[in-house]
Amino acid sequence: MKVLCVYLLILLCMAKVTFAQDEKTSLLVITGGHGFDRLAFFEMMDALGNIEYKELAQPDANAYFLNPEGFDVILFYDMVQEISEAEKAGFEQMVKEGVGLVFLHHAIVSYQDWDFYRDVLGGRYIENGDDTQTQSTYQHDVHFDVKIADKDHPIVWGMEDFEIFDEIYGQVFISPQVNVLISSSHSESMEHLMWTREINSKTRSVYLQPGHGPGIFADPRYRKLLKNSIEWAAFRR
Ligand SMILES: [Zn+2]
């Protein structure tokens, strides 16, 4: 009997170890409101590994904030302006309770009138400039340099500076509160291309500017940045 108990205990421990190794980060991918190369994008997502994702397209995705299902991380790859007050409140509650947030590329254009979103993301692409704010710009198919600004951060740890080919944005508002991970010296590009924010003790956010694709989606360094961002936002890095 004693031997049997020890045997069962060993089996139980082995099962637990296997479970821990197999545990995937659950990810909600929000798309819609802007075209993108679906094939290349999801080929990248499938290759990230250790991530289980579900896609939800706008305009329906906003309704998710009313009844969140507990994904570890939400990846924003959408670009929309409309959202109800109740959906905003749902998102704000989710951020308060703890969730991982990764914002890609044109997600920085979303919700021009919702400052909570701007503050959580850490910046805003200004769609309509006026006396108080400069109009942001974009330019497709540009070769630009990527400089690792915070070499000790777990998302970019061990990475070297590199060249990238994608769309650039310029004149974008960046909050002084962000922790900059990557910058560029390209004269037409916004100075910082990637940053993080720790919103509270349970919510981390990351913004990554490149992401128009499809070339960038195939770049192993970009895939690494995205995978590490998702893991960091999920408190697994
Ligand atoms: Zn784009």
TrEMBL record:
Top-level taxon of the source organism: Bacteria
Source organism (scientific name): Cyclobacterium plantarum
Signal peptide: 1-20
Protein name per Swiss-Prot or TrEMBL: ThuA domain-containing protein
Keyword Signal part of the UniProt annotation: yes
Location of the ThuA-like domain: 69-233
Keyword Cell cycle: no
Sorted UniProt keywords: Signal
Cited Pfam families: ThuA (PF06283)
InterPro entries for this protein: Class_I_gatase-like, ThuA-like
